[in-house]
Specification:
This protein is mainly β. The chain has no helices and 10 strands. It has a single domain, classed as Jelly Rolls (Sandwich). About 0% of the residues lie in helices and about 40% in strands. β6 and β7 form a beta hairpin. This is MALR1 protein.
Length: about 160
């Protein structure tokens, strides 16, 4: 079994995402915050915390960067598992990889508004011969009530 390095956002301590509370655009909140959906975390708990895009962000994106990870090898692939919420109208969530030698972020996974306002879960496997960072980028194109992008319980396997 894996021992996962977990970021559930219940506290401000997240070893793998050291600066998530300082990233402009992402806010740590719960379902009772009065900021629209989601109204609970992925377990249905209204008082449990998750990250969501701040509704003040008018048609822009916000990135969330991990620590630098060491290269993966055949025995230790890096698996990133996370729960996500993307509103059906105009939300997008992307996961990207930035390798040490490259200036650009390579998009490795993306979802946008075809979902029916519910939490979903996904696991991404990363293979990299050099040091890298993983970047979560959220985007909301309009500011209609109920448009939102959120992430919860981001976990990283030992290979990360």
């Amino acid at each position: 079994g894996f021992s996962w390095n977990n970021c559930d956002f219940e506290t401000n301590l997240c070893k793998v995402l050291p600066e998530f509370s300082l990233q402009p655009g992402w806010i740590r909140r719960n379902g009772q915050s009065g900021m629209g959906p989601p109204y609970s975390d992925h377990n249905g708990n209204e008082s449990a915390y998750f990250l969501s895009l701040s509704s003040e962000m008018q048609s822009s994106s916000a990135a969330l960067r991990t620590n630098v990870f060491l290269p993966t090898d055949e025995e230790h692939l890096c698996q990133v598992r996370f729960h996500y919420w993307v509103s059906q109208m105009s939300g997008t969530l992307m996961v990207g990889l930035q390798k040490h030698s490259e200036d650009t972020v390579t998009n490795i996974w993306q979802v946008s508004g075809e979902l029916r306002n519910q939490w979903n879960v996904n696991t991404i496997t990363i293979n990299s011969t050099e040091k890298y960072e993983v970047i979560f980028s959220g985007m909301v194109e309009t500011q209609r009530q109920g448009d939102s992008v959120a992430v919860d319980d981001i976990t990283f396997s030992e290979g990360c």
